[in-house]
């Protein structure tokens, strides 16, 4: 069965989450370090992820401003989604991710995770929240 990849795309890191085969739950997979906008630097990594995990679709977090407008980070997400679609001929959905990084931070704070550890997992956790929100919306 094919799976769905969830991404929290930042300027230095990309949090990656993956769905289970049924498309019910999202699990954190990894954090990829990159230098935006050098798409070539992550091309091989995504090629491997898509092949290895039989990915049928990618959900990219789409950070809109609170008033619904699209700012520079939203445009960067749109550009990254277009790169994935064009390069890998795969379906890509943008998912409104307003507040996911803050929500991820809150969960980690409540779990009493140290600042150093939070920094390492925040992007992956945000990717999980983006993907889980998307999966939940489909049921």
Automatic annotation (TrEMBL):
User: Do you know which InterPro entries this protein is assigned to?
Assistant: RNaseH-like_sf, YqgF, YqgF/RNaseH-like_dom, YqgF/RNaseH-like_dom_sf
What protein is this chain from? Putative pre-16S rRNA nuclease
- Organism field: Gracilibacillus halophilus YIM-C55.5
Q: Which SMART domains match?
A: YqgFc
Domain YqgF/RNase H-like, by residue range, is: 2-104
- Cited function: Could be a nuclease involved in processing of the 5'-end of pre-16S rRNA.
Enzyme Commission no: 3.1.-.-
Q: Which family does it belong to?
A: Belongs to the YqgF HJR family.
Per the record, the domain of life is Bacteria
């Amino acid at each position: 069965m094919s799976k769905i990849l969830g991404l929290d795309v930042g300027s230095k890191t990309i949090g990656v989450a993956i769905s289970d085969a049924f498309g019910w739950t999202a699990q954190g997979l990894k954090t990829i370090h990159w230098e935006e906008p050098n798409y070539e630097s992550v091309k091989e990594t995504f090629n491997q992820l898509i092949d290895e995990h039989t990915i049928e679709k990618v959900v990219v977090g789409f950070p809109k401003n609170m008033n619904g407008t699209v700012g520079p980070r939203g445009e960067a997400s749109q550009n990254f989604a277009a790169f994935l679609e064009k390069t890998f001929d795969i379906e890509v959905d943008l998912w409104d991710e307003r507040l996911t990084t803050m929500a991820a931070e809150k969960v980690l704070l409540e779990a009493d995770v140290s600042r150093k550890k939070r920094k390492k997992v925040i992007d992956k956790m945000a990717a999980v929240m983006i993907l889980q929100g998307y999966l939940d919306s489909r049921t």
